[in-house]
Design goal:
It is a single chain. The chain is an alpha/beta fold and 154 residues long. The chain has a single domain, classed as HybD-like (Rossmann fold). The protein has 4 helices and 5 strands. It has helices spanning 21-30, 47-54, 101-109, 135-153, and strands at residues 6-11, 38-44, 61-68, 77-80, 113-120. A 5-stranded mixed β-sheet has the order 2-1-3-5-4, with helices on both faces. Strand 1, helix 1 (21-30) and strand 2 form a beta-alpha-beta unit. Helix 1 (21-30) packs across helix 4 (135-153). Its EC number is 3.4.23.-. One of its GO terms (molecular function) is enzyme activator activity.
């Protein structure tokens, strides 16, 4: 069995509108015939917790898929460089929110290739529960998958 050296992590919460983008993308990826060296994880709203437990010496590349708010047109896909991630000076651990950016930067500094595929959301409904993606973001799921498949081949 080939070792898993590419990890695709979908982040978000399906209950809060477009925040569920990453979960929708990995749900589709899980049904695809991907190379044996690729592992797909739906990390939900706990992306950092999952990454901290899953990253080992075999991982060469991590692709994180998540909804973003960069003031773009809703449904716009943006490949985000590690240097563009928010500059949070320290980790802030609590029961619900662990910033992912510092952890991804640390992984990058350790030689792991980090790719973030973000989709500009339209409706982030938290704390109000509203399952389902907006039309614009739902249309962007396949485009994100296309980009991810390209990243796997690199």
């Amino acid at each position: 069995m080939k070792k898993k050296d590419i990890l695709i992590v979908g982040c978000g919460n399906l209950l809060f509108g477009d925040d569920g983008f990453g979960c929708e993308v990995v749900s589709k990826l899980e049904k695809m015939n991907l190379p044996d060296n690729v592992e797909v994880i739906d990390a939900g709203a706990s992306g950092a917790y999952y990454l901290m437990t899953l990253v080992d010496e075999d991982i060469k590349k991590i692709i994180v898929v998540d909804a973003i708010d960069f003031d773009l047109e809703p449904g716009t896909i943006k490949k985000i460089d590690v240097d563009e991630l928010p500059n949070i000076k320290k980790y802030s651990f609590d029961a619900h929110n662990v910033p992912l950016a510092p952890f991804l930067k640390d992984l990058h500094n350790k030689g792991i290739e980090v790719v973030v595929i973000g989709c500009q959301g339209k409706e982030f409904t938290m704390p109000d529960i509203k399952p389902g993606l907006s039309e614009e973001v739902a249309k962007a799921v396949d485009k994100a998958i296309e980009i991810i498949l390209g990243e796997i081949k690199k």
